[in-house]
UniProtKB/TrEMBL annotation:
Boundaries of every Calcineurin-like phosphoesterase domain copy: 4-206
InterPro entries xref list: Calcineurin-like_PHP, Metallo-depent_PP-like, STPP_CPPED1
SUPFAM superfamilies attached to this UniProt entry: Metallo-dependent phosphatases (SSF56300)
Molecular function GO terms recorded: hydrolase activity
Protein name: 3',5'-cyclic AMP phosphodiesterase CpdA
């Protein structure tokens, strides 16, 4: 295959019961039906809140099964609980093995690798960082081995959380937003041993596309909703959308798209989903 096209959707926040964001998922699904990518990557926060309502993930799985393209998913904090952060931060719903098992039963392994168009494309579970779960150490071993064995191929990594705001070493910002400092440093060291060209994420509900030390960092927009500036300071573009990638032997092109039909929900809709 000379080119491999991926559509990235993120932060769909789906639920049968709290269904206000289903319409925007359907807009993404229609675009996928038109564009016919080789693969859809869901970069996490598939559910509104699966740690309290497991049916959110079952419902999301039914919707994802209706996509015309095959898909791979990675888990977000609203799917399996969150990881501890810098400065002793502990989330209200910490990740645990039961949540991960429930997620994996529907969406497959937390980590995955796809080789296509000369690229090595990887999915990482961001919620394992600093969790102390057995999966944290095994993911680290897997990633180290996989990157060491990538044989000079260009590598793309999909991970729910961004690696950083601007650079690896920076003052601690929002403790639950980025990969925490200790695993971030390890990840950066491992990445430096391979030809990593792309680090793609979701989670922030703001889109950004910037290059740091030769690696393109793409923050996919949420399909579901954005947050007002008074609740979440603006660091990127606050608009619902998705990302389209074309991987070839020459590189990758990235386009963030904002379909007009996606509704820009107000904060009341978000509050109602999380009430
Ligand atoms: Fe999210
Ligand atoms: Fe998230």
């Amino acid at each position: 295959m000379t080119q491999f096209r991926i559509a990235q959707i993120s932060d769909t926040h789906l639920s049968r019961q709290k269904n206000q964001f289903v319409g925007n998922f359907e807009v993404a699904a229609e675009r996928i039906a038109t564009q016919r990518p080789d693969l859809v990557v869901h970069s996490g926060d598939i559910a509104v809140e699966a740690t309290q309502r497991p049916d959110d993930l079952a419902f999301a799985n039914e919707l994802m099964a209706g996509l015309v393209a095959p898909y791979r998913a990675i888990a977000g904090n609203h799917d399996i609980g969150d990881n501890p952060g810098d400065g002793g931060y502990m989330p209200k719903k910490p990740v645990n093995d039961d949540f991960i098992a429930g997620y994996e039963a529907l969406f497959g392994p937390s980590q995955w690798q796809i080789d296509a168009a000369g690229w090595c494309i990887l999915g990482l579970n961001a919620e394992l960082f600093l969790s102390g779960l057995a999966g944290e150490a095994s993911q680290e071993r897997w990633l180290d081995e996989t990157l060491s064995q990538s044989g000079g191929k260009p590598v793309a990594i999909f991970c729910h959380k961004p690696l950083f705001l601007a650079q690896v070493e920076e003052p601690a910002d929002v403790p639950y937003r980025y990969v925490p400092m200790a695993p971030r440093r390890k990840l950066a060291e491992m990445m430096a041993k391979a030809d990593v060209r792309l680090f793609a994420c979701g989670h922030v509900h703001q889109s950004r596309d910037h290059v740091v030390d030769g690696i393109r960092h793409v923050w996919g927009p949420a399909t579901a909703f954005t947050l007002p500036d008074a609740v979440q300071p603006r660091v990127g573009t606050k608009r619902c959308g998705m990302v389209e990638y074309v991987f070839t032997h020459d590189g990758v092109t990235v386009e963030t798209v904002f379909p007009d039909a996606m509704v820009q929900h107000d904060y009341d809709a978000v509050r109602a989903a999380y009430a």
